Amino acid sequence: MSSNGSTPEQLEADIARQREALAETVDALHDRLDVKSRARGKVDELKARATTADGSPRPDVLAGAALAAVLVALVVWRRRR
C-alpha cells in the first residue's frame, strides 16, 4: 500500500484516466496544427456554399463574381488612362 492511502488498483485507474486525457489533448492539438487538412476543409466548405445541390454555381455567386470582374477592369482601365 502506498503512503497516500491509495490502493494499487486506484493508482492504475488514475494513471489510465490521465493517459486517456493526455491522448485526447494530443489529438486536439494535432487537429489544430494540421494546416493542410484544415485548408482542405475550408475549401470544401466554400465550395459547398458557392454551389447548388446539383453542383452548379449559385446565380448570386456568379453575379457577384461578374460584378467584381467589372470593377477590377474599370480600376485597371482608369489607372492606365
Strand proportion, as a percent range, falls in under 5%
Biggest sheet record: none
Helix segment tally:
3
Give the averaged pLDDT, no decimals.
90
Q: Give the overall shape, derived from the CA principal axes.
A: elongated
> What is the CA-atom radius of gyration, in angstroms?
28 Å
Secondary-structure element string = HHH
Q: Helical percent range?
A: over 70%
Number of domains: 1
Provide the low-confidence segments as ranges.
Answer: none
Structural class: mainly alpha
Distance between the termini: 89 Å
Give a structural overview.
79% of the residues lie in helices and 0% in strands. By secondary structure, the protein is mostly helical. The chain has one domain (8-80). The longest helix has 26 residues, at 8-33. The protein is elongated, with a radius of gyration of 28 Å. The termini are far apart.
Keyword list:
single chain, 81 residues, mainly alpha, 0% strand
Question: Which helices and strands occur, and which strands form pairs?
Answer:
Layout: H1 8-33, H2 35-50, H3 59-80
What is the structure about, briefly put?
This protein has 81 residues and is mostly helical.
